[in-house]
Amino acid sequence: MAILYIVATPIGHLKDISLRALEVLREVDLILCEDTRVTKKLLDRYGIRTSTLSYHQHSKLTKINYILELLKEGKNLALVSDAGTPGISDPGGKLINFLITSPGLVIKIVPIPGPSAVTAAASISGLPMDKFLFLGFPPTKRKRKKFFKEVINSKYPVIFYESPYRIIKTLKELGNVMNNEQRTMNNIVVCRELTKKFETIYKGKIEEVIEKIEKDKIKGEFVIIVEADQC
Questions:
Q1: What phi-psi label fits residue 89: left (phi over 0), alpha (psi between -120 and 50 degrees) or beta?
Q2: pTM of the entire structure?
Q3: Which domains does the chain have, with CATH numbers?
């Protein structure tokens, strides 16, 4: 029976990878990567020579069918994203669903757990994290206001991602929605460049955090945690 390994890789620091993950990446027949150039840096760091194939949200059906055929032939594959755990705000989940619903395909899917920006941020937030809501990335165009309303009305802390290109815009829109809804300005935690050299954690009210971020050079992906609504 063929095996598809779902392998978590570092979100920044290349040492944040498990021995088991390295073992799997060495032994599989092929590694499916969100971006082969990104994964190559990790593989080169540990002297892994396994062949790679790109798989991302724009991959055509012909490539997905090729992956399907490899598994039918009994090949063992590993799926990785550019950073963190596949299937969490990346297209890996769609591939897994396609494969497990494919008629006649019998495979074993094995998770190789490891780094995740969600849990890394939650662990240092200082907020109660026995329950939280994860919302991925905000919509880039439509339904943004609806997204932010869901954030501020949650009875649990909310975690979501944002890019460096929209972080200030997003935080300002979130603050505006809070004001319009006459909500108390919740405390937020914004994590930048987690596990990397210039890792920075911002905490406080939204306007305070925006001011701090604007003073710094904006770089890298952001994880935002919004304190649960206290009303």
A1: left
A2: 0.90
A3: 2-112 (3.40.1010.10), 117-226 (3.30.950.10)
